What does this fold into?
Amino acid sequence: MNRAGRVLAVSAGIAFAAALTAYYIVSYLMMTPPSVAASGSAPRARLTLQTVASLGFKPHPDWVSYLAKNPQGKWVHGTILKVPAHSLVTVTIYQYDTATGLRNPFWGGFHGTVGPVTVNGKAIKTLDPSLASHTFAIPDLGVSVPLKGVADKAPNQCSVAPCTLAEAHNTIVFTFRTGKRGTFRWQCFVPCAAGFILGFGGPMQSLGYMDGLLEVV
Amino acid sequence: MTIPHTEVGPARVPRHWLRMVVIWAVLSAVAIPLIVLVLGPHLPPGRMTSEAGSQRDANTLMTALLAPIVVSVLVFFLYSIVAFRERGAAIVDGPPLRGHVPMQTAWVLFTSVIVVALAAWGSYTLIVSSHGAGGGQGPDPVAVPSHRSQDLVVQVIGQQWNWTYRFPAYQDVETDHLELPNHSPIEFHVTSLDVTHSFWAYQLGVKADAVPGVDNVAFVHTRDDGNFNIRCAELCGLWHGHMFQTGNVVTPVAFKSWISSEQKAEAPNLRYLPPFGRTYFPAPFRRAG
Ligand SMILES: [Cu+2]
Ligand SMILES: [Cu+2]
It folds into this structure.
């Protein structure tokens, strides 16, 4: 190969490597998980979530997960939730999973809620920690609500998300108050990750499953 | 070609040694009081507890002791650059270096005295005056305050990803926020429910590993009102960086009213808590999908 040909080949190689690198960097930066806005606006908003025993689709069909309903009424597999600042946010969670039980029974109590917490329409003061399937907790806002699991032998259990109201579930409704703007993590405190050491791997350590962000905007 | 050089009579050689000692003494005499009186009160971790105060005193002492040593190195270095710089083109080898027994002996003695004195002082504060200096001492602490029975026992429970606290003197109530009474001896019992965490209450001067199955004891004596930061200092999973809380040291009266309001708020859940223990192995009650 002559000199010009060598220069051309090396330049082409460098350009290809640079393009590949740029492609990875740009696609990494663009890779934001879907965020779901609450419906309504300040000072009152509504969030609708569901928890499922197994997602039923890729990338982790057998992982336990949260899903969120967007304002158009469609279920989204995402845990980045957007709520207005200085507002009362009413959360409705359709809980389709069975109970695992809390490692620390302390989280069986309700914290940081405004007004009653209802399970299937009935107000309760605390949950027997052994009946907890998951918790919805925003520790930095002092919010923590345990979610009652469906009975182990309940008929018509859901195994593919999104689950429908025809399948066995509990409906938990509570309200919390948001303050100033900011991003806060939320998580589950039940060691619900079946098949992982101490029940705390996989979905318990992954955004989009048992962990999420609350964007107060 | 012969190298030209200037003959200088011995009387006209400046007394470099004396000059350096004088410069060093003046700078050190300025630096030490500045460190002790001006910088010292701002050194971490403050004085919210006696143990934090001892840590700050240690930081002040070390900084003050270091100052004359740093100053001596810098003075010698800068003085040499200025006074012994070879001017002109010629480079002549300097006089040979020889040992100086009195200087070497003084150096060894002086540094040994500093190190041994610091070790003695450090051991004294660690064991006698600040009772483990706020560090976790494991389940059987050696450096124990004299009136331990009067301590307010606070169990610190680490879990993925939050801290909770149990107060055996108040019906074993558990909280997810920490308030402490001022002017009181506190006995932290740090443990974990899952992986290893580390309870780091910065302004209290406390850092103790939270290990599942281990009761790690740390003592502090509160002496200033204020807020303190609690962080997890052991990588523990996804939200490790969010295992952050702000605690408060408040008056004993305010503490009493806070703990009784917590007891009231936690009453419905209290019967579900396990009996107070030094450690917990609470496996999930049931296993489900
Ligand atoms: Cu969960
Ligand atoms: Cu931690």
